[in-house]
Input
Amino acid sequence: MPDVNLQHIDKIYDGGVQAVYDFNLDVADGEFIVLVGPSGCGKSTTLRMVAGLEDITNGKLIIDGKDCTRLPPKDRDIAMVFQNYALYGHMTIYENMAFSLTLRKENKEVIHRKVMAAAEILDLKSQLNKKPKQLSGGQRQRVAMGRAIVRNPKVFLFDEPLSNLDAKLRGSMRREILLLHKKLNATMMYVTHDQTEALTLADRIVCMSMGHVQQIGKPIELYERPANTFVATFIGLPPMNMFEGKVEKGDFKCELFNYPLNEKQKEILKDYEGKEVVLGVRPENIVREGPVKLAITNNENLGMNTLVHGKIGGTKIVVCKFAEWCNYVEGDEINIGFDPAMTHFFEKPEGDMPGKAIR
Ligand code: ADP
Output
């Protein structure tokens, strides 16, 4: 039985803004789900509906077999960790972690046992008598998680918990959250706009745009087999390069170059002769031989690889990622091609609708 089951969920805010359209997801027991997408795509709204902080306009929410669609938050057996973790400044770390249990008038010994167990998991035992302002940002974030852990909820919900931390700390907190997930073996739903967090944390990613789910799958599925142009350019950094063109007599033709297709690519595109399509290729799948001339504008060495930026035909900006140290300078010209096993084809996007993958 799935642990959290969202069925045909819509959210329409007062005033008529529809933030979420027909959201469907089965979250398995112990699974780590990451909702990812740009700001405003409806991911927090979805999480807040699971938490009970927003009404569900249409659809059904089942948690652990129980219909929770209209239940108040306190009856849902969930705990939420926010971006603004707002610890109580006048209380010690111990008191902050104990707060929800104290409020519930739990037995003091039970509270002590639970707080100490959470402090052990989060490596906060030596901090319990301190006040929040004496702790680092990362430690405070751990206290916020501690407050959730002591409640031993069925489901943990995280709303952009790391976005207030600097880049280095975000990296180490990501690893801590993964360890925590392993130790607790708990079901987690996690919201972020950061595709790196999604790829590194998730068992499965739910990628959203404009209130619609675009794709649900394992990180590698979204990376290797994006369902449409939106997912293709949102997952992966730097984003996939996209070229609009036409399939014509065995070539992919765009304004700037002709690209001969191999047999496998022709087979994939057999129903698209004469039609407009989009060719996508990730920076890491561009090779340094082929029919396309790239005028280099910028060379960024990252140590183990180099991001090379350039233009095709003076206009189209392309980013390549080569797995070695390169020393190009502005004005250099190189020939590039696309690893044929790693090209992606999509139908042409129409207005706000992303173009569907062609396979
Ligand atoms: P995300 O978490 O992906 O950034 P949100 O779920 O916060 O996006 O918002 C989704 C959409 O719903 C946005 O267009 C936002 O402006 C709108 N929205 C969010 N909260 C409210 C609200 N309380 N009232 C009206 N519209 C809202």
User: Anything to note?
Assistant: Residues 4-233 form a domain with the Rossmann fold fold (CATH 3.40.50.300). The pocket of adenosine-5'-diphosphate is lined by residues 13, 15, 17, 19, 37, 39-45 (CB under 6 Å).
